[in-house]
Amino acid sequence: MTTSPAEPATVVVVGSTNADLLARTTVHPAPGETVLGRDLQVLPGGKGANQAVAAALLGARVAFVGAVGEDEFAQAATSGLRDAGVDLSRLDVVPGGTGVAVVTVAADGENAIVVVPGANAAVGAAQVRRHADLLDTAAVVVLQGEIPRDGIEEAARLAGGRVVVNLAPVIDVDPAVLRGADPLVVNEHEAHAALGLLEHGGPTGAELSDEDVVAALRRLGVPSVVLTRGAQGALVAGHGVDGVVAVPSPRVAAVDTTGAGDAFVGALAGELARGTGLVDAARLAARVGAFAVRGSGAQPSYPRGGDELP
């Protein structure tokens, strides 16, 4: 599993890669209820891999630091990364199973997901440290919450360039990681949780508006913040940005929202690596996220460089 681009990567994603078992249903089952599914697909996924693929398909040079297991799901989990031309020379194969996500998608496009980490649990500080050279030279290092805390913290410490932290799912990381995020990318719920982490277990800001939470995160030392709001677009704040800027999302008919947030993060990271300003990068990322919800699955729904964005 060694795919390497001709030139060094400018975006390095340290994160998870999974095989997604995607089942389509009319409605999500209630607790204790069984519903019939329409079909089942095995697709590449994992937040880290999704973000790497999204960036690479839009032309960024991307390398991936992660792990898969020694099972039948490893090929499926990495197929999208290989097809997108992501450098997999830093991908480890470890004993045990590859990470798996069980995803149900209802007729309205909303999803429910259960993640079994598998090999992703091996992406801790020791593994990350072996790739210090790569992290030091990357223009942008992208992190998420589907690998161990010490792996995230070590990657943030070793990064020589800009660090994009997508705190999803929310885990209890060192507040220094959040204060080094440029930007911290979170949805509405994650933003409130991040505020609580920075206030050392204090209030989560549940009574605050999204704009107030963004401003509070900035006051607590986060260099820049992108708060994603689904069909409502995103809020952006940080150095070089005048106040809190609302970035709209194109209106589209959603088929499947799986991985749309990851498409946003990957596109954002790729644009930042090119030197695009944060607001303009978020505008492009919102269009990429809107494109993604129009197709099925995560990586298969992402735009290629020649696709027309909404």
Provide a quick synopsis of the model.
With 310 residues, the protein is α/β, with parallel strands linked by helices.
Explained architecture:
The chain is an alpha/beta fold. It is 32% helix and 23% strand. β9 (162-166), α6 (175-179) and β10 (184-187) form a beta-alpha-beta unit. It is globular.
Structure keywords:
310 residues; alpha/beta; nine-stranded mixed β-sheet; four-stranded mixed β-sheet; 10 helices; 32% helix; 23% strand; globular
| Whole-number mean pLDDT | 92
Q: Numbering strands along the chain, what is their spatial order in the largest sheet?
A: 5-4-1-8-9-10-11-12-13
Distance between the termini: 34 Å
Q: Could you give the count of β-strands? A: 13
Outline the secondary-structure elements.
Elements: E1 11-14, E2 18-25, E3 37-45, H1 47-57, E4 62-68, H2 73-84, E5 91-93, E6 99-105, E7 111-116, H3 125-129, H4 132-137, E8 140-143, H5 149-158, E9 162-166, H6 175-179, E10 184-187, H7 188-198, H8 210-219, E11 224-228, E12 234-238, E13 245-247, H9 260-273, H10 278-292
Parallel strand pairs: 1-4, 1-8, 2-6, 4-5, 8-9, 9-10, 10-11
Antiparallel strand pairs: 2-3, 6-7, 11-12, 12-13
Helix pairs in contact: 1-2, 1-9, 7-8, 9-10
